[in-house]
Design goal:
Number of strands: 7
Strand order of the largest sheet: 3-7-5-4
Number of helices: 3
CATH superfamily: Nucleoside Triphosphate Pyrophosphohydrolase
Length: 131
């Protein structure tokens, strides 16, 4: 699975997460998913499929978060924002779930992605989400 260690200023920690980001105005979620994957990891998406969507802010907002799965193909450079400090890691699914059980994944959207992914897993290499 393609993941990132993302430095999160508010908690002063490197957090293990799936690549994610925001949808630009008038951008379709699938296009944003491919763009964010490339910007943050340098990978391109092949066989992108939407898994599901959910409300990340519960009842406080009508904003939706979309979960996608894809095969990740290496090939491009990252295009991160200057304020983003990230390290890309490729981990076997088993190791990702071991890290989850050890409490090493605390990012709520990544937890939602893992829950859905476990239900639909069919051998793809990458999962990421957008909000």
């Amino acid at each position: 699975m393609v993941m990132i260690y993302n430095y999160r200023y508010p908690v002063d920690e490197w957090c293990l997460e799936f690549p994610s980001g925001h949808i630009d105005e008038n951008e379709k979620p699938a296009i944003a998913a491919c763009r964010e994957l490339q910007e943050e990891t340098g990978f391109t998406a092949k066989n992108l499929q939407m898994i599901e969507w959910y409300y990340p802010k519960s009842a406080r907002s009508n904003r939706k978060a979309y979960l996608f799965t894809a095969e990740a193909i290496k090939g491009l450079k990252t295009a991160r924002e200057k304020s983003e400090f990230q390290r890309v890691v490729i981990l076997p699914k088993k190791e990702v779930y071991q890290k989850l059980l050890r409490g090493e994944i605390r990012h709520s959207a990544s937890l939602a992605a893992l829950a859905y992914y476990q239900l639909i897993s069919r051998g793809t290499n990458s999962i990421h989400f957008l909000r």
